[in-house]
Design brief:
463 residues; FAD/NAD(P)-binding domain; Enolase-like, domain 1; 3 domains; five-stranded parallel sheet; 22 strands
């Protein structure tokens, strides 16, 4: 007879493990199926966490090499130890995944190790055992999108998984894709000495980002030594004795050219991972992009089966998945779980960082919305000057009539931390004036947010 649970969550990533913990907190008997040997999913094991560890390590090295002298801190014979950097990354990953395992034990969640597949709407099979539940949650995340003609081997042609585990610094790294992942990992290896070229099919970087921010972002990356080939597609890759030879063509047609690299990173996006689940066996509907279709309460077309995170529509972000995991667990417990998708921040963890929430200016123009803009540069912020990090600015978009915040975009130091204030403001329906008249400690980077809000109505003080 099948072992019985209230909730079975398939996938132990940020969406899945958070959903499992919240459901357990609410008194349900919960199991989580995870095929990986550790919990935490792509994010904790080979994504968000290890990449941020390498970003921090490479930023520290770059600052010692290029930035500290301006502060009177002098160092001679600066070098780095790549195996030690990788060791630090692995320690950080280990601590995080062990932390999730501890939380499972604390909340009495059963971890079922293996691959789950549906045999019927109310049960899953893992190995040779069957497990039943009133509610089954699909939280299997996403995987790197492959590129036709470019075969990944995770050595010379890599996804993000291989890019965080290179054994040496490539002389020339070519990044295919000008999105968050490619730019972050390209930045890591550029700081450590690699020549980096980003090849992007579109004529701009990060298409979901506000255009003005994206333009400034590209200029800063160019200043750091990253090269770009925009409006260009990769049509083939041939492995050579020294690396990879790529064939490039203009996106709008034209003559082909070749580009040689030691390592190629394929980072053209991610897709929902539903392989081996057996969704066809129970009739769970998917959309044209392979994502599981859900209603406004994360329910699929099959009663008792739900889905959250990267496997459904919306931005593929760990924190979006976490919010959905909490909301769904509360809905299953009879509470009013809800996610405000207009208040989900996005962050690129390069340096400077880029962060945004709400609408871009392009989206507001397309909607025909009446809006006003306030901007303030970090060059005019006292704390940024003291830090020596004056690149970038804060941009606030507000409704022309009501002054309600519609979108905020920041490129600058610690933008990913600073955006939280604006996410909260949008969540509570604040106006630009609400931000402008809120006292911000001096001297802090957040004063740039206050000044940008003041600038919305033309009364910024320090510019």
């Amino acid at each position: 007879m099948a072992e019985q649970y209230d909730v079975i969550v398939i996938g132990g990533g940020p969406g899945g493990y958070v959903c499992a913990i919240r459901a357990a907190q609410l008194g349900m008997k919960v199991a989580c199926v995870e095929k990986r040997g550790t919990l935490g999913g792509t994010c904790l094991n080979v994504g968000c966490i290890p990449s941020k560890a390498l970003l921090q390590s490479s930023e520290n090295y770059h600052a010692l090499l290029h930035g500290f002298a301006a502060h009177g801190v002098m160092a001679k014979e600066v070098s780095f130890d790549l195996p030690k950097m990788m060791g630090h990354k692995d320690e950080v990953v280990g601590a995080n995944v062990k932390g999730v395992e501890f939380l499972f034990k604390k909340n009495k969640i059963t971890w079922i190790k293996g691959v789950a597949s549906f045999k019927s709407a109310g049960s899953v099979t893992v190995g040779d055992k069957e497990y039943a539940a009133k509610h089954i949650v699909i939280a299997t995340g996403s995987e790197s999108v492959p590129l036709q003609g470019v075969e990944v081997d995770e050595k010379s042609i890599v996804t993000s998984t291989g890019a965080i585990a290179l054994e040496s610094v490539p002389k020339h790294l070519v990044v295919i894709g000008g999105g968050y992942i490619g730019l972050e990992l390209g930045s890591v290896w550029r700081r450590l000495g690699a020549e980096v070229t980003v090849v992007e099919f579109l004529d701009r970087l990060v298409p979901t980002m506000d255009g003005e921010i994206a333009t400034a972002f590209q200029k800063i990356l160019v200043k750091s030594g990253v090269k770009f080939k925009l409006g260009t597609k990769v049509t083939g890759a041939v492995k050579t004795g020294s690396g990879v030879s790529l064939t490039l063509e203009p996106a709008k047609g034209g003559s082909a050219e070749t580009l040689d690299a030691d390592v190629v990173l394929v980072a053209i996006g991610r897709r929902a991972h539903t392989e081996a689940l057996g969704l066809d066996a129970v009739g769970v509907a998917i959309d044209e992009r392979g994502r599981v279709k859900t209603d406004g309460h994360f329910a699929t077309n099959i009663p008792g089966i739900y889905a959250i995170g990267d496997v459904i529509a919306g931005p593929m972000l760990a924190h979006k998945a976490e919010e959905e995991g909490v909301a769904l667990a509360e809905l299953l417990a009879g509470q009013a779980g809800h996610v405000n998708y207009g208040a989900i921040p996005g962050v690129v963890y390069t340096w400077p960082e880029v962060a945004s929430v709400g609408k871009t200016e392009e989206e507001l123009k397309a909607e025909g919305a009446a809006y006003k803009v306030g901007k303030f540069p970090f060059m005019a912020n006292g704390r940024a000057r003291a830090m020596g990090d004056t690149d970038g600015f804060v941009k606030i978009l507000a409704d022309r009539t009501t002054d309600k915040l519609l979108g905020v975009h920041i490129i600058g130091p610690d933008a990913g931390t600073m955006i939280a204030e604006l996410v909260l403001a949008i969540e509570f329906g604040a106006s630009a004036e609400d931000i402008a008249r809120t006292s911000h400690a001096h001297p802090t980077l957040n004063e740039a947010v206050k000044e940008a809000a003041m600038a919305v109505d033309g009364w910024a003080i320090h510019i």
